[in-house]
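--- STAGE predict ---
source: upstream dedup step, 1 unique chain passed
mode: sequence only
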Amino acid sequence: MGRLQNAVQQLKSKNQPILDNTDRSLGLVSLSEATMKPDDFFKRTNQKDFVTKAVSGEIIGTNGKKFPPIKGTDELLIKFKELDGEPDRGSSERVAMDKFIKTYFGGYSKIEKAANGFGGTGGSGKPTGADWEDIITHHYNILIEKPNHDPEATKKVLDKWGDYDEIGKTIAENFIPEIGKSGMTQYGRGKSSLSSFWKTPSPGVTGGTNATPKTDMYTSDYHISLKKKGGSQLASGATGETLSTFYAALQHFSTDKNGLTVIDEVMKAIQDNFTKLQTDYSKTGLEVVSKDKKKQGKLSSKDKVAFEKYIATEDFHKAFNATLIPKLDSIKDATIFKEWLIFEAMSGFSKFEGEKSKSSVCMEFSAENGSVTKFIEVTSDGKTGGLSDSPKVSGMVKKVAKKAKIYAAWKSSGKNPYSTLRISGYGEDRDYDGTTLMGCIRKTIEEDKISQAFLKEDVQQLDEFWFKLPRWITTTFNKIKGMGKDAIKWVTNLIAKIMKAVAKALAAIKKMGAKMFQGLFNFLGVTLEDTKITGVSDIQGFMDK
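--- STAGE serialize ---
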């Protein structure tokens, strides 16, 4: 049987697109009969194109017929559209994807791959992005007299893309003045290993999952991110990817002089807020109490209402949101931060574990005339040396950053540490040690003798004790109000102690270097909910790739 198969393959015409019945009986599969696999949907623009064709009823099955159109509002279609890379087997996202394909197409093996333009030669017989990488790599290596440098790329070109020799050679010739002469390897096929940081850039934050490398081809000096002029390599721009990119930029930004300035402003806002809280207690609510004429341990109903209303409205959450969030949002106006954000989006510097997956230069070529239409240095000189532990942003990236606009939306974490505190087991959880705002407040209260007396009583009654600090202070104050001015002094001293603990924690955060911003966000319980970058159309294709 093996000899018969070889004979059939030798007799086949090189350009014959479909095998005859003899081929089918021998179990051979032609390029045009290749079907979709789960990972095929997330190569190049396949996911986006598949959704478009599915809604318009243009998906071709292995029987040559088109599947019925799907409503754009279909729940399974929407879930598929929102996927950011191939989901893991067994995950809820993968289950939903499998159900989507099974429900509307009968299974992955029922969908033509090449005929729909999702791989191989495509329905039009034109090279895909990965094919162009092979074509350019093959002809570039021939021109620099290293024809066997990437035998896999050469084999793919000789097998399928002989008709593109002329344009491939022209493009390769135009690459040489830009990157010199050094053996090239095609690298854009497949996936790379994501860094642990990228998957979880901050506690409680789900990062990106798209493991497609930024580098499409590489030489000894350059890691090249490639894009065809007029083509589209835009990814979904999913939240996880942009959040990870944002946090990655913060790591670089916080070590910069401007980063230190912003961090100082944010920390000052925290300290000023506590100072304001302490001062306002003295001038308003506590002044009312101090002027209480009865002084027999009872407040007038009017004074009691005024005091409790003040405590309830001047809680930490509102005070912090009024002063802190604007400071955090001010990052969007920092030019240097934008430079690092764009650098990360184009290079994948913090995204990948493997060095080769990180790009140092972005190149765009014309498939019409073979010219290099864009040569964008990402590192300072476009070379891989700029991807070291202390990278430097190129002048081109700095220029683009001036046009960029960033929108960032922040939210407090689920624990909402500004107004809600959780006491359980006296320091058995991570928030007890004073490394978070909640921890500073809790630790101070539990070390306070008067507070401790009332807290113990409450904790003994409940396994978990939830309370709002301002109202708790009010309740405690009412229990000790018979002490007169000493009660007022206790309140002011308690706030002062909390402020001192916060200042100590912030001082430690300032010494965290590249992790400074992350430390600050963890301390406050603030996470980034969404971020968008606009105004960089010239390089958007490389950033979202």
